[in-house]
Structure formats: C-alpha cells, structure tokens
Design brief:
By secondary structure, this protein is mainly α. It has 11 helices and no strands.
Amino acid sequence: MATLSRELRAGGAVLVRNLHMIRRYASWELVFFFYSVINVLTIGLIAYAEPASRRGPEVLYLAIGALLWGFLSLLFQEVANAITYERWEGTIEYSFMAPIRRISYLAGNVGGALLYSLVRSALALVAVALFFHLRAPHVNAVGAMAVMLVSAVPFVGLGLVMTVLPLLSTERGAQATQVIQGLMLLVSGVYYPVSVLPVWLRWLSGLSPATYTLEAERMAILHGAGWSVLAPDLVRLAVTGVVLVPLGLVVFHEAERYALRTGRLKRNG
C-alpha cells in the first residue's frame, strides 16, 4: 500500500506539473483555443449553404464532428507529443531518471492530457452553441458523455504507441504523429459519412476508433439513441482500448530501452 500511495502521488505530481506548464504558456493556449473555436464555426457555417429547413440538422452534424474531432485529436496529440514537450523544456533526462515507475509517469501525462482536452472542448462547445443557438431536443446526454469517455481510452492507447516516434527520432518524430492523425481525419467521417469514401479507402474507416465514436455520438445527440443502439459502438471502442493501452505500454517500454541504449534521450542532435 505504501508503494501504491507513493506511485499515485508521483503520477499526480506529473499531472500537476503539466497543468502548470499550460498555465505558463497561457497566452499561447488562448491563441490555440481561439483558433479551434473559429475552425468549428467556419465548418458549421458551411451548412448555411443548405435550405433553411435543413440548416439546423446540418449545422449540428458538422459541429458534432468538428468538436468531437477537436477533443479526440487534442487528446491524441497531447499524449503522443509528451516526449517532444519534455525535450523542449529540457526535462526529459530528469523525468526518465526520477525514482518512479514508468507507468506512473505515463499515467500523469495521460491524466493531464485528458483533463486539458475535456476542459478546452467544453469551453469550445459553449462558444459554438451560443453562436449557432444549437438545440438538440432528443439528445441522450448521458449516452453522449459515455461515448466520449469510452472513446478516450483507445485514443490514449494510440497516443502511447505514437509517443515512441518522438522518443526515437528527435528531428522527425513529432511530424510523423501528424501523418496518423491526418489519416484518421480522412477516413473517420468527421465532416461527411464514410459512405462517400472510395471503396479502396473505405475499409480503413473500420480500423479507426474515431469512426465508431462519431457514429455513436451523432446517434445519441441527433436521434436520442438508447443504450441498445449505442452498445455495439461502445463495445468496439472498449475492446480497442483494452488492446491499444497495454500495447502502447509495451511498445513504449521497448522503445525506451532502445533509446537509453543508443543515447537518444538527449535534447538536441
């Protein structure tokens, strides 16, 4: 119990440190938040090209996609680029030499990323709802929240797998994570149904957890779908998370051993 308590405090300390880093760069956070809100508003305004009778559902469809993708991509990015941030701050050697278990360090990073993504997405949701006067009379709010929370698990696992890229490549690792993020954006039906994709590309949508997240979230918000309708997508997301999170931990452990053996933890070079 003493060891568990110590590791929980260590993970909490990493989380608090990351939150202090966000506060340290508060002006940049305001810029990023402003851009994310403007991005959602711009996408939502596309629906105003539709007749007035269809405008409301179209705006909501696009806004759900943009907001949810903003949350998932931000969570993925914060987890995947944790090593990059350590290098920027010059703390990577100290973090990896700290007398705590690696899982505690990763849990602190994941917790900070999840909290940051939830708060920023919630503020963006309020801003967008006020701008468009959004209303969803049939929304299943509990189901929609459950989908969002369950979907965070596979994205955390995927982020942990992608964390090894900045760990192994100082110069190009962070850019490589953007390739995966961009591919998911293309095939997951963020702004359009996956049925419009070419047949040769459509099969990739089934591999992206974002596809099931968006599908379930839209059913819960637009149609008030109950648990029986949401269950298949929730199960897919949960199973994907159960696979990806342990896989991410194993991959990170092996990549860390390789990085230590080859001297890749230094900040520059």
